Write a sequence for this structure.
């Protein structure tokens, strides 16, 4: 059984066996700002906040979407028309949230992946997304960027020592510096690597969770 299939099976078992979990496909960020919770597979996202200036979209124009990467890691996508046009100051947006794994399992988050599609059009400009984990982790940082000169970095990742809950802060800065043109970004993807037990142990956990769910339905 592959790692991806193991993780998907675990996610199904966790969702099936946890009555309070809600597996949402896509919701506006605005729906999550007042204590909302978003579940993506084996990851739980909460404590969302969003502030912006300039020409950045409002929270009702940003979608939060379930995603899973090629390694089977679950996460979320922020999809919207992030933009700055020439003729003014930079546009800035800050997205913050917490990500955690269920208390019912003895797993931890051991890595973070981030990718996006920033682009500079028709003139000088810059686009950057900087991710930090303050105050829990002060010395780790993820950065993606496009400086408009063919020198760009559209993905970054970091390995962590292991956390049950992780605070995430994403600072998005877009600045079209010329007399015309624009800097844009339409999506920002985030997945989290979670350690998993050996296949035999994982299958035992899945069977136990599914069995408990079945008992709950019969009661």
């Amino acid at each position: 059984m592959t790692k991806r299939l193991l993780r998907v099976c675990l996610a199904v078992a966790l969702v099936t066996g946890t009555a309070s979990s809600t597996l949402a496909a896509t919701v506006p960020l605005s729906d999550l700002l007042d204590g909302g919770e978003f579940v993506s597979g084996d990851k739980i996202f909460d404590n969302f906040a969003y502030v912006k200036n300039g020409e950045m979209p409002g929270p009702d124009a940003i979608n939060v979407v379930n995603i899973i990467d090629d390694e089977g890691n679950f996460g979320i996508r922020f999809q919207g028309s992030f933009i700055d046009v020439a003729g003014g100051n930079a546009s800035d947006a800050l997205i913050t949230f917490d990500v955690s794994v269920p208390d019912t399992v003895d797993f931890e988050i051991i890595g973070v992946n981030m990718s996006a599609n920033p682009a500079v059009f028709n003139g000088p400009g810059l686009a950057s997304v900087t991710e930090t984990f303050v105050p829990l982790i002060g010395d780790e940082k993820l950065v993606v960027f496009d400086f408009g000169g063919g020198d760009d970095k559209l993905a970054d990742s970091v390995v962590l020592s292991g956390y049950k809950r992780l605070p995430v802060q994403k600072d998005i800065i877009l600045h079209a510096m010329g007399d015309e043109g624009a800097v844009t970004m339409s999506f920002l993807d985030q997945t989290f690597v979670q350690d998993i037990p050996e296949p035999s142990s994982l299958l035992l956990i899945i069977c136990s969770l599914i069995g408990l769910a079945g008992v709950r339905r019969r009661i």
